[in-house]
Amino acid sequence: MKSKLYISILATGLLTLGCSKDYLETKPTEFISSGQIIDASDLNPDILEASLRGIYATMYQTGSGGTDLDHDDFGQKGYDIYGDMLSSDMALTGTTYGWYSDLSDMTSTVDYTNINNYKVWRFYYRIILSANLVIDGIGGNDASLETVAEQQTMGQAKAARAYAYFYLANYFSEGYEPSTPILPIHLDTEAPNQPLSTAEEVYNVIITDLIDAVELLEGFSRSAKHEINQDVARGLLAYAYAATGKDQEAAVVANKVITNGKFTLMDKAEVTGGFNDVNTNGWMWGVDITLDNNLDLVSWWGQIDLFTYSYSWAGDPKVIDVDLYAAIDSTDIRKFQFQGYFEALPENRDKTEDGTFIDVPVDINELYPTGKFYAPEREDGGQRSVITDYVYMRVAEMYLLHAETAAKSGDEPGARASLKTLLKERLDSDLETAYVDLLSGQALLDEIYLQTRIEFWGEGKSYLAMKRNKATITRGANHLSSAGASIPYNDDRLSFKIPQSEIQNNPNIN
């Protein structure tokens, strides 16, 4: 009975951890401590599994950014929207309710008192604190792990901590500059408030954690896709290497995920199939959303999908940037992700007499992703209780990340091969991929970057690619603000500011 009580307390504590404003307090008295975790895990090893479930639940839980009422506060997918809007690939074309309006016009990111900065900071440090509780409960960062279960738990916790630091490092810096102080590092629950560490120091932690995780998760067979396994840890490691310019290392790691044969690229039917099923083989990491999760309007689907009772349906549309849409070839199946669900169906695609597809004209303010993201019933505003799933990582990311980093490290044949493999699943025929063979140098990198933006629209990856490639973005005509403006990746408006609460509570940050 005592061990069951500990599990209940821990699971509840980790799901609601750190609701106070002092969200980097390392010993929150109202929640279970690392010492209690150690005691509890001695009584019942399942306590560590329960603590991991709390971390994974935080990733899709509403209010996990520290607010009770904000309808854009629902975990990782909420910040995927933030990233897509800041990269300008996602355009907000209406403000009936106003969610994301100060993010879309890039005013909230330059005001450290704005709640948007707090939510991003709060969410990822919450993951870090939860991961540190697990790591401390097993014995600390350098613990001698006696069982396979301990190794796998440690591997997941270190990967989760690295994932959170990786996103913080991207969102709270203007690009990777090794000597620039960006974040405080917390590697346990006992250390007091920390000063800002440099980007190089933060990424050293990220990469070390992920290298450890890859080793510790060898042979781990997860029970569901919301858990981090070795492939996901490798995917995160490839991203971390790429962000720091270690392109050869990134290419090697990404290729390991590609060649292990566990995942296949989503085909033409799947990429216009709704992106609503975690069992899709091309999804490496995601979560099966059920009625038990109690998600509704306050969710990713509640912000994006016209076929969910959503803000997009009710007056705050989120659509693809019109110039990015125009850059998609008319024979590319992804064009039909944004031309309405009817036109997106392959059997309804019109052709000319010579067999080429007709480009369907659409209003630039109505380029909804109704052919990419939709509840299966396809009833306008129909899905009230969300049961459509969340995707965090796809194997397609590894193909395009391999292409990018292989090209940057001098392996242009390998880069072209990965790019063509993906495009064969997107274009009408293999012959249409032949143009890739003529690309080299910057032209090849530009094409890989473009295809990355097209492939992952709405999935939060464009922001990461913008930072890696030091790109300048130009807003299309369907943006409500700064339409036509060209904005470099390191513009002050494209990264978040350390929030007022942290500055007030951490005496080491001026």
UniProtKB/TrEMBL annotation:
Homology family: Belongs to the SusD family.
Pfam families membership: SusD-like_3, SusD_RagB
Gene3D superfamilies assigned: 1.25.40.390
Keywords from the UniProt entry: Cell outer membrane, Membrane, Signal
Domain RagB/SusD residues, every copy: 368-509
Domain SusD-like N-terminal: from-to ranges: 88-238
Organism encoding this protein: Arenibacter antarcticus
SUPFAM superfamilies from the UniProt entry: TPR-like
Protein name as catalogued: RagB/SusD family nutrient uptake outer membrane protein
Lineage of source species: Bacteria, Pseudomonadati, Bacteroidota, Flavobacteriia, Flavobacteriales
Location of this chain's protein in the cell: Cell outer membrane
